[in-house]
Every structure is written in C-alpha cells, then in structure tokens.
Amino acid sequence: MERNRSPRWYWQLHWQILIAMVLAIPFGLLTGAQGAGAVGWLGDLFLRLLKMVVVPLILFSIVAGVAGVGNLKGVGRVGIKTVIYYLATSTAAILVGLLLANLIHPGDPTLQGLAGKPEGMAEAAPSLKDLLYRLVPDNPVEAMVYSDDDPQRSPNFLGMIFFAILFGLCVLALPKGKRERATSMFETLFSIMMKMTSLVIKIAPLGVFALLAKVVGTTGLDAFASLGLYMLTVLCGLLIHLGITLPLICFLVARRNPWRYARALSPALATAFSAASSNAALPLTMESVEKRAGVPNRVSSFVLPLGATVNMDGTALYECVAVLFIAQCYGVELSFVQQLMVVLTALLASVGAAGIPHAGLVMMGIVLGAVGLPLEGIGMILAVDRILDMCRTAVNVFSDSVGAATVARLEGEKVSWPERSEKEEQKS
Ligand code: ASP
Questions:
Q1: Taking 50 as the threshold, does the pLDDT of residue 422 lie above it?
Q2: Alpha-carbon distance 69 to 76, whole Å?
Q3: CATH for 10-427 (1.10.3860, 1.10.10, 3.30.1460, 2.30.30)
Q4: Which residue, 35, 159, 183, 350, shows the most beta carbons closer than 10 Å to its own?
Q5: Domain spans in the chain, listed from the N-terminal domain onward
Q6: Pocket of ligand 1, candidates 211, 241, 278, 317: which has the most ligand atoms within 8 Å of its Cβ, to mutate?
Q7: How many angstroms is it from 393 CA to the middle of ligand 1?
Q8: Are 410 and 81 a contacting pair, CB within 8 Å?
C-alpha cells in the first residue's frame, strides 16, 4: 500500500536537481569568488565520489555486459549497431553545426586580437598513432589510475574499455562451468558498484549546486559580449541536436517518450552540465538509464561506457562551428573540400576527446591543422569555453543515453518504465 503512493514533488530527484541549479545561479552571481570558495569543497567532494566509483563500475559493467551477451556473434551485433549509432548521430550533429556556421557567419576579423596559443595546447593534441597507442595500454592497471599529482590527468578510458572488452570475450571462451561462474561473479561485482552509485546519486542536488555556483561565481561576463554570435551559433546547434534530432531518434527508433526519457536522465544531465565531464557523469548515466529509464543492463553496460569515451555529438558540433568561426575571423573562406575535411576531422577529434572538461578545446588542434589554420586561433574562443563545454557535455551524455535505448530496441529487448512495471506487477 505504502509503496503505491508517489512521493511529494520536492522529494523527487529531478525537481531537487532543478531547484539546486536555479538556486546556484543567483548564489554564484551574488557571492562571486568568495561564495565559490565556500562551496567549492562540496563540489570537489561530489566529483571525488564519482571518480571513486567510475573505474570499477566501467570495468565490471563491460566485463559483465560482454560475458552476459553469451556469444561472440551477439557481442559483434551489439557492437556494430552501437558504432553505427555513434557515427550517424555525430555526423548529423556536425552537419547541423556546418550549416549554422555558414548561415550565421559568426566570425569577424576584428576578433583576431584574441588569438594566442595557450601553453601546452599544441603538444596535447594527439595524432592518430597516439590514439591507437591509447587504445592498447601496455599497463592496464596504470590505465585505470587517477593521478593526485596531476588532477587534469584522467585514466585512459579507451585503453581500459579495450582491455575490459577483451577480458569479457575471453570469459566467453571459457568452458561452460567456469564461464558461468565468472559471469555471475562479475554481475555481482557490477551490482555492488551500482548500489554504491545509488548512494552517490542521493547527494547529486548538493553536488550540482556547488559545482554550478563555483562556475558562476568565478566566470567573468565580459567575454560573452564580443563572442555572443559565436556562442549563439554553437548553442543553437546544440539545441537543435538536443531538442529535435535526438528526441526524433528516441521516439521513432527507440520507441520511447523523449520527454520522459530526458526527465529520467535528469541527474546525469545535470551532473554532466555542471561538471562538464562525461566521465564524471557516467555513474549517474548508468544508474539513470538502467534504474530510472528501464534499459537492460546487457546493452547499457556496453553502450554507455564506450559512449562516454568516444561518442561526443556536442563536441563534434562545437569543433566544427569553432573552426569555421576561427577561419572567418582570419578572413579565410574554406572551400567545399576543406569543409569536408573539417567534418571528417571534427568527427575524429570528438572520438579522441576524453570525457573531461575542455578536452574538446585541446583536440581542436587536429581540425585546425587539417585546414591549415594556426593553433593560435584557439585563443579566440578560450574565454567562453567553459559554458559551451557544460552545454556540449550534456548533449554528449544525452546522445549516449538515447543510444542505449536505441540499441536495446534494435536488439529486440523488452524495455519498460520501471515505475509502470512495478505498478503493473502489484496489480497482477
Ligand atoms: N567535456 C566534454 C565531455 O566530457 C568533452 C569536451 O570538452 O568537449 O564530454
């Protein structure tokens, strides 16, 4: 009886998070750097908790997911569908960016004065060979480590995923008895990590408040005026992708109500937005997609960690707009072939970008280099990158989540909203 009564609205997580976000803005504006300093520790603590769970969560999730599929053919099928979804949505996002940047033409030669290469940026943009090397870690344990000495250094998620998939495939190759025992052990370990994530999710409203208040309190508003048109172009593109392209896929292919799906995802989206990191949001994405949106673990355990690392629609769109904007500022009109190069390299840059703050900015070197623009151009967009990073990260995470529902549907999985199935169970 008790379980049937739905909790009051203010106990519902998505409302709590929304309220936290609304309160953080005036708090940040009114208290500035002082307020940011006062709540900063809370945001950092939230991020530390997320980092604490994310590595074992990814590892156990992928091994359990791959082994749980049961056969090599099944893993290959899920893998191909996932990659097709990633490529299709990222390309769609880039094309929207390309169209808008050509239509709105935000670049203006008067902004050239902002050019200037931030320290270490050129060296940080990896080549194709680096990407390949990152995929195959020589030390899988090191690939899983966060560094306290260098807070910017995140684990090598790509290498870790490669290792975990290979590990899962080797579990599949074991004789039946051992295979079943190993699979059930990893499923149990994964369930434990999901329980831990459920605990962390409870403080998401506080964490989101602190992270957002810190950003608002420490970001100046001056840069926004001169780069307004550029920001508008990126934001319009992200909005089209978030509000039209992805909901259409969610509705038509995944057969889910997009609004309800987004609401179920709100803890993950809010965390992605305020932390500007797909990796930090991953534990909440997994919890929300499985527990709040009812996508089966067999698919989400594979699609989501991989997506958080390589599928970045928002980043791809932003790379494209930013490079066209920089070209316009330098007075360079890019030819059709050069714009095609931008599309291809933006896709590559989004795949290579890590799921951490400003990774897309670092990867821009690849796209700029491909069309012969100087790296110094990055300096023009630096001032407003944080806010755009927050928005594109939320789009990245929503795309991963819609991908999980889409692949699950294409795999013929029965998907239902958890609350409804609970009520149905009680009725029957
Ligand atoms: N911050 C983004 C993410 O974590 C990557 C980027 O900088 O575009 O998804």
A1: no
A2: 10
A3: 1.10.3860
A4: 350
A5: 10-427
A6: 278
A7: 5
A8: yes
